[in-house]
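Reopening this one. Same input as before:
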Amino acid sequence: MAWSTRELADLAGTTVNTVRHYHRRGLLEEPDRRTNGYKQYGVPHLIRLLQIRRLRDIGVPIAQIERLDSGVGTSPEVLAAIDASLAETIERSSRARAEIADMMEHGSITEVAPGFARVAPRLSPSERSLTLIYSQLYQPDVMEDVREMLDADVDAATVEFETLPPDADEATRDRLAAQFARTIAQALTTYSWIRTPQEHLRQTPMSTAVTMVEAMQEIYNSAQLDVLTRAAELARVQAGEAPGVTSTRSPHGT
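Same output, byte for byte:
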């Protein structure tokens, strides 16, 4: 039995151009020609073409396919690299499917970080924005703790804080700071990474600090930032730490 280029391509589930490309790359031998000049492919050509297709279907690049006496193949190193890449793809796909399921159940919310769709309705716009930034700065284990911190009923102090005007008086600032300090002190005790975050960062400590300062200054007004700074100082004292330079934190202690 002899097949034309078109017939061979159809049998192998590929195209004529692909067959010709394999000829040019030296992976597929040129067949004999009939008296009329047309190519005539045999079973060995079909087998080799199917072998090439099998490797291409699992992602082996043309340049990494080796021509062997009995067929075609590739090195273990190439297969290991492809396997690692596929594992990453599967992991990304699994995360994406989980996020899609979460968004379908709780609403298509892109204003929050992945995994925060369920708690999003109870978050303020500023808190939603911060979850997106946190997700780029902190490792997944930290984000689980952040979600746990935010998964609480919104109290009156947080509502008042979100609408605090830049010219809020001292008494109001002190009162809110004292209320938030208790929450932050509890977070310092419960979540050890807040005290030593370096091992849980996705970025460098300097990049993280600069990003957080820029974000907080953009999201909160001067009075809100003042309240957060006072609350952080009070919280460290309450948690048994010496007062000093503190990072700006949200009302939830993150």
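So the earlier flakiness isn't reproducible anymore. For the record, The mean pLDDT is 87.
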